[in-house]
Predict the structure of DNA-directed DNA polymerase.
Amino acid sequence: MFFNDKCRDQMVLPRSSLNSENDLDTSNENDIDDGYIELSKDVSEKNLKKTYGNANTHLTSNDEHTNISVIPSYATSITNRPKTNESPVIIQQCKQSQDWPKWQVAIKSELESLIKRKVFIGPMELPTGKKLIGRLVAQGLSQRPGYDFFDTYSPVIDATSYRYVLALGRNLDFEIESMDVVTAYFYGDIQEDIFMKVPEGICIPSSIREPCVKVVKALYGLRQSGRAWFEKYAQSLIDQGYSYSKASPCIFFKTTKLGKVITTIYVDDSTIMGDSAAKNEAKQMLTSQFEMKDLGQLQGCIGSDIEQTNDGIFIHQTSYTDRILEKFNMNHSTPRHNPLECRGHHLYLYGAAQEGEPLLEPHVPYASALGALSYLANFTRPDISFSVNMLARQTHAPTKRHWDAIKQLFRYLNGTRNLGLYYLKGNLDIAGYADAGFVSDWSSGKLQTGYVFTIGGTAFSWKSTKQSITATSTTHAELITLFEATKEAVWMSSFISDLYSGLQVNHNVFPITIYEDNQACIRQIESGFIKSDMTKHFTPKYYFTTDMIQEGRIRVEQISSQSNLADLFTKVLPGSRHKELVEKLSHAPI
């Protein structure tokens, strides 16, 4: 699914126990607003031992629903939970639980779905020489490539494409709704011969005499299940006349006499938008093919909150931000105006640990906190992208100063919880901005690449990353950055061209303009590769931009450094400058 609130929360944040007295907060004792959280320290070698040979039926529950799955037993022993609060792990423990009637309902519901989707053929005797997987949720680690599975890649819609189609849909006055496919995997067809023993305590009708079934539909845990389901869904839409772009294969679209319609898919979550009649027809078609839950007007996706207004569409992650601030005990911290402390160009302050510098204790959740922040930076918060990129480099060996920077980021989020991306109606124009920053890695001398693309002035694609080679001049660094921005623009032009063609949208966005503030770089691009003492060492691939200009896919124009919005992605800025760029890129005040 497109990571609903509960799923996303569980993914980025480990199980932990909050404690007001621990040694996680490594800051000054008088800093009362610092957050701290203590993970279970009782994680022994025995807990982490992988018992590949055994697998148990693992049952998990939450406030709203109960899921049943089977996973290797070692995956359930990472955290030592109190016995009084421990959930059952296998069927036998379930039966001994006071909640056994509730577990029975959950198990029955899951088995009914398996039978309804005809996931199995059988029962039968176990064929000689056949590979068996004795798990209700198949233990995919026991599958062998070229024998039990072949292709496993299953595409999911990327955040950039999703942001763009939401902005496009609102500009075209589409009705935007969402649907969920019930037990989606069970629709996928399995081509390989895979047999499974029915686990003890699980009763599949007619399997008492012959406790073996053949898996003919996608089942949780099989390596190919995700791909099998996606192929089933995609083929169903293609059979109904939908097209898709190879540049973004999870977006399907078509135009009929009823109007235009777009549908996107991320595992089992579908967003459907279009003219009213065309959208309703698409929903009816999907409902006839699959069991669907109609969730009505789109209000959230990918762990985000989505608000549709008369003027546009607002994508933010306020709810998610609230959760992670509370999770890391930073919800009452003092708000800050900058993601990182602005101390001139001293980015070495966030560099690698120095010789003899103490590292953080293992229980400090640096990686977990960074994962939560990365999710925000990649989806709705480009304003923290540079800061997160800097701190992500130290995940293997973080120190107190890195943890202090993480807490600074949380304080910044505490003061900007409601910030997001507001895509206004009435403007589909695309513009790009590229910039190379100061040295961001003092150990290697590498500079920072930053770019951002906007639709109607609001950011929908961005990147902040350390350059892969050491630039020998400012011009060299800007050429590298422009090359990266050009690659994104070329992909973008392919995707948007396919989309506009299929929807019959009459709006010319090409060539895509990329604004650059370095005059020498622009002159180099205009001239193409010229061998000289100053440039002969430049890798020719960085002149890919020149080819794309000549093909009419992009153009590069000079802009002042003060007007370059990509400045936000290459350096730590003073508070006023940071605020100015964030408001321009988000169309929302801080």
Summary: Residues 1-43+303-417 form one domain. The chain has four domains: 1-43+303-417, 45-78+87-116, 140-292, 427-586. Confidence is low (pLDDT under 50) at residues 1-84.
